[in-house]
Amino acid sequence: REKHSSEFELVSSLAGALPKYAPEDVLTGRVLMDKPDAALINEVLGALTPSNMNVVLVDPQFKHEEANQHEPVYDFKYREEALDSAFVARLAKAAGHGLLPPPDLQYVPRKLDLISEGAGKDGPEQLLKQGRVELWWLGMGEVKLPKAIISLKLGFPSSAITQVQDLILGSLHSRVLQLVLEETSDALQTCGVSYNVGAQREGISLSFSGFDEHILELVKMVMPRVRSPRAEASEFEMARRQLVLDLADITKKQPYQHALEAFEIVTLKDRFSRQEMLAAAQNTELVSLAAYSKFLDQVFAEARLTALFTGNIGKARSLEMTAVIESLIGITRDQPKALHDSHVAVVDPKEEVEVRVHNPIPNDPNSATVVSYQFGVPKITDRIHLAMLGEVIDRPVFEALRTERQLGYVVFGWVATHASIVEVRVLVQGFREQPDVVGGLIEDVVQNLTSVVASMSQEEFETRKQTLRSTLTKPAATMGHEAGRYWGQIWDQTYCFQKQDLQVKYLDSKEFSSPAPLLKAWRQAVEPTAHRKKVSVKLFGSKAENSSLELHGDNPTGKKVITLVDSKSVGKELEGEQYWPHEYICK
Question: Is-above-0.85 flag for pTM?
Answer without folding.
Answer: yes
